[in-house]
Specification:
The structure holds two protein chains of two kinds. Chain A is of the alpha+beta class. Helices cover about 35% and strands about 25% of the residues of chain A. In chain A, helix 2 (about 55-70) packs across helix 3 and helix 4 packs across helix 5. The longest helix of chain A is centred in the N-terminal third of the chain and has 16 residues, at about 55-70. The radius of gyration of chain A is 20 Å and the shape is globular. By secondary structure, chain B is of the alpha/beta class. Chain B has one domain (about 10-345): Alpha-Beta Barrel (TIM Barrel), CATH 3.20.20. Helix content of chain B is about 45%, strand content about 10%. Chain B is built from 14 helices and nine strands. Chain B has helices spanning about 10-15, 35-40, 55-65, 80-85, 125-140, 150-160, 160-170, 175-195, 215-230, 250, 270-275, 285-290, 295-310, 325-345; strands at about 70, 90, 100, 145-150, 200-205, 235-240, 260, 280-285, 315. In chain B, the strands form two sheets. In chain B, strands 1-4-5-6-7-8-9 form a seven-stranded parallel β-sheet. In chain B, strands 2-3 form a two-stranded antiparallel sheet. In chain B, helix 11 links the parallel strand 7 and strand 8 (about 280-285). The chains are: A alpha+beta, B alpha/beta. At the A-B interface, helix 1 and strand 1 of A face helix 2, helix 3, strand 3, helix 5 and helix 6 of B.
Chain lengths: ~220, ~350
C-alpha cells in the first residue's frame, strides 16, 4: 500500500527553489480554502500553494496579478506566479498586508490611481498622503483636514503607523519615505487603512495569530 | 570519526523513551505537527483529517516524510474521545482546531459517567485506530508511530465543563476522584485499542496545567492514576501537561511514565534538574512566538538550548499552530543533526 502519492513538488524542493516563506494565508476563501504562501528568494516573490486542486494555477496567477496591480510589483516574465519590486527590496512588513489584500480581493478588482486619502477611524479628519519627488527620492507627505480634538497628535500617531507597518523612515514631522526611497504608491495605499489605527490593527493581528493555536487557555474548548 | 546515523528513526525514539543509548537525539512529535500547507500537500484538510483514518494517516506521515521527524502521530487534536462520548462539537474549518462547546457539558456527576459499549466503533475513534494500522502497514518498523489517549482529567474538563469540574475538586474531592476513576477506563480502552492497532508509544495528555491547578493537586488527584496507567498500558507512555509544571515534575518523575512532554514555560535545564533523571523529557520548542512567528534561526537556538540541557527528545511544546511555516518545523531535525555533528564530528 502506498499511503501518499505526491502530485506536485514537495516542501523541501519548494523551499530550495523559491526560498523562505515570508507570509502564509491559511485559507483562500475565494478558492477551495487552499493555503497560499508568499515565498521569497533573491528579491523575487513566488506565490505558492501545495494544493493540486484543478484550477489552482489560474488562481495563483490571479493573486500574482493583484500583487502587481495593487502593490506595484513587476511580474517576472514567463511565470504565472512570480513578481518583484523594481527597487529590489523585499519590504518585509508591508508586503504581508499586500498578500492579504491580494488573496482577499476580487481578482477583477481595479486598483485606483485616485488621491491617496481615507477617513480617519478615530476622528472626523480626512487623512491624505501625497507623493512628492525630490532629488530622485519619493517622499510621502501626510496631512489631514477636518475637525478633531488634537489634529497634530492624530497626525503624529498616523505617521508612526506608517513607520510601524510600512517600515518607513520618518523624514520630516509629517513626511515618510520607504527604505528604498522609491515610489511605492501602491504599497502606501495598502498601508493607509492600517496606519490610521494601530491599536485596532494590533488587536486584529493578535486575533488572527491565535486562530489555529492550541493554548493552555483553550484546552480543546470552543471560545464561543 | 565523522558522525553517522546508525539507527532507524523508530529504534532511536524507542531507545530514547526507554533510556537506552541513541546515535543522536530524536525529533519527536507527541502531539501534532500538521499544518495547513501539509494538509494541502496530501489533500487531508481539517476537520476531515480528524474524522477519517486514511486522511489522518496521510497527514501524519508528512511529519516523517516531509519534516524529517523520527515519529508520526495521527491523533492531532484532543477531542476524539469527547466527540465519541457525545459532547457537542464545534468542528471548525481547515485552519482551526476542532473543539468541544464548553457551555453545554453532557454530565454533572460521576454517576453520569457511562461508556458506550461501542465507543471504539465511533467514527472519531476509528479514525485514529485505522490511521495507526495504515501507518504501520506503510512504514513497518521504520518510524515510531505514537498514538494518543486522553487522561481522565482532560476528559473531565470536556464532559463536566472546566469550571464545574474544578469547583468540584474543592467542594467534593471524593466525588472528583470517583469521576476520575470512571473516566480513566476510557483512557485505557482507547489506549489499548491503539496499541492493538500497532502504536509503538502513547501520548497521555492530562491537562492538570500550571495555569489551573497546583502541583499538590497533581499529587493528590493524578499521580496514582498515572502510575497505574503505566502498568495497564504496555507501551512507553508520554505524559503531556501544558503550562508551567516544574512544581509537579518531581511527582511526575515517580509515576513510571517513560517521558514527560513539557511546555516552553519551563526552562529546559530547570526541568531536567526537577525530574533529576527520574523520567525522560521531550519538548519544548515554543509554539506561538518561535515556531509560528519567527524563523529557522530562532528555532535552531531553542533546539540547541534543549540539547545543551540534555533533553532526551526534541519537539514542539504542544500541538503546533496550524499556520506554522514548514521550514521552521524542518529546522528541528536539521538542527539536531548539526548539533550532533558539531560535537561528534
Amino acid at each position: 500500500m502506498t499511503l501518499i502519492s505526491y502530485k506536485g513538488p514537495r516542501p523541501k524542493d519548494v523551499i530550495t527553489k523559491y526560498g523562505r516563506c515570508l507570509e502564509l494565508i491559511p485559507t483562500d476563501k475565494r478558492f477551495n480554502e487552499i493555503s497560499v504562501g508568499l515565498y521569497v528568494k533573491n528579491s523575487v516573490f513566488t506565490i505558492w500553494s501545495f494544493s493540486t486542486k484543478p484550477g489552482v494555477e489560474k488562481r495563483i496567477e490571479e493573486i500574482r496579478d493583484l500583487l502587481v496591480s495593487l502593490g506595484g510589483m513587476s511580474p517576472i516574465s514567463g511565470t504565472h506566479n512570480q513578481a518583484k519590486f523594481d527597487c529590489g527590496l523585499i519590504h518585509n512588513r508591508p508586503v504581508r498586508f499586500l498578500l492579504s489584500q491580494a488573496v482577499g480581493k476580487d481578482p477583477e478588482y481595479a486598483a485606483t490611481t485616485a488621491v491617496m486619502e481615507i477617513k480617519d477611524s478615530k476622528s472626523d479628519l480626512l487623512i491624505r498622503a501625497e507623493g512628492v519627488d525630490r532629488d530622485n527620492i519619493r517622499y510621502y507627505q501626510i496631512s489631514a483636514t477636518g475637525e478633531a480634538r488634537n489634529p497634530a497628535m492624530r497626525l503624529r500617531m498616523i505617521v508612526a503607523g506608517f513607520s510601524k507597518y510600512g517600515e518607513m523612515d520618518k523624514t520630516g514631522d509629517q513626511e515618510v519615505a520607504f527604505e528604498c526611497r522609491s515610489n511605492h504608491d501602491g504599497l502606501l495605499r495598502i498601508l493607509l487603512p492600517y496606519s490610521r489605527n494601530v491599536s485596532s490593527v494590533e488587536t486584529m493581528m493578535q486575533a488572527e495569530s491565535m486562530r489555529g493555536q492550541m493554548t493552555t487557555s483553550t484546552l480543546g474548548f470552543s471560545q464561543t | 570519526m565523522p558522525y553517522q546515523e546508525t539507527m532507524s528513526p523508530k529504534e532511536r525514539v524507542m531507545n530514547a523513551l526507554t533510556g537506552k543509548p541513541v546515535d543522536r537525539t530524536p525529533a519527536v512529535n507527541p502531539t501534532n505537527v500538521a499544518t495547513v500547507e501539509l494538509m494541502d500537500l496530501v489533500d487531508a484538510p481539517f476537520p476531515y483529517a480528524c474524522q477519517d483514518g486514511e486522511m489522518a494517516a496521510r497527514l501524519a506521515a508528512t511529519g516523517y516524510t516531509e519534516l524529517g521527524f523520527d515519529s508520526v502521530s495521527p491523533y492531532f487534536s484532543i477531542i476524539q474521545e469527547s466527540s465519541a462520548l457525545g459532547c457537542e462539537m464545534q468542528w471548525e474549518e481547515k485552519d482551526n482546531w476542532p473543539t468541544v462547546r464548553m457551555y453545554n457539558p453532557i454530565w454533572k456527576s460521576a454517576d453520569d459517567v457511562k461508556i458506550p459499549s461501542d465507543i471504539l466503533e465511533h467514527r472519531d475513534m476509528k479514525a485514529i485506530t485505522d490511521s495507526i494500522r495504515m501507518l504501520k502497514d506503510e512504514f513497518g518498523d521504520e518510524v515510531a508511530v505514537i498514538g494518543k489517549t486522553m487522561g481522565p482529567w482532560t476528559l473531565a474538563y470536556h464532559v463536566f465543563g472546566v469550571e464545574s469540574f474544578l469547583l468540584g475538586t474543592v467542594d467534593n474531592p471524593e466525588e472528583t476522584k470517583r469521576a476520575l476513576e470512571k473516566l480513566k477506563e476510557i483512557s485505557v480502552l482507547f489506549g489499548q485499542a491503539q496499541i492493538d492497532a500497532g502504536a509503538d508509544a502513547l501520548t497521555f495528555p492530562d491537562h492538570a496545567t500550571g495555569d489551573l491547578v497546583s502541583g499538590a493537586y497533581y499529587k493528590e488527584f493524578l499521580q496514582d492514576i498515572h502510575t497505574e496507567m503505566v502498568d495497564v498500558l504496555d507501551v512507553p507512555l508520554i505524559l503531556h501537561i501544558c503550562g508551567k509544571t516544574v512544581d509537579r515534575m518531581p511527582y511526575i518523575a515517580k509515576t513510571g511514565m517513560a517521558s514527560f512532554h513539557f511546555d516552553s514555560k519551563n526552562d529546559p535545564q530547570e526541568a531536567m534538574d526537577a525530574v533529576d533523571g527520574g523520567i525522560t523529557l521531550v519538548g519544548n520548542i515554543n509554539n506561538p512566538e518561535t515556531l509560528y512567528a519567527r524563523g529557522p534561526e530562532e528555532v535552531r537556538q531553542e533546539v540547541y538550548k534543549c540539547l545543551e540541557a540534555g533533553v532526551q527528545m526534541i519537539g514542539p511544546e504542544c500541538a503546533i499552530p496550524l499556520a506554522t511555516k514548514i521550514e521552521n518545523l524542518m529546522e528541528i531535525p536539521l538542527a539536531i543533526k548539526d548539533w550532533t555533528a558539531e560535537r561528534r564530528g
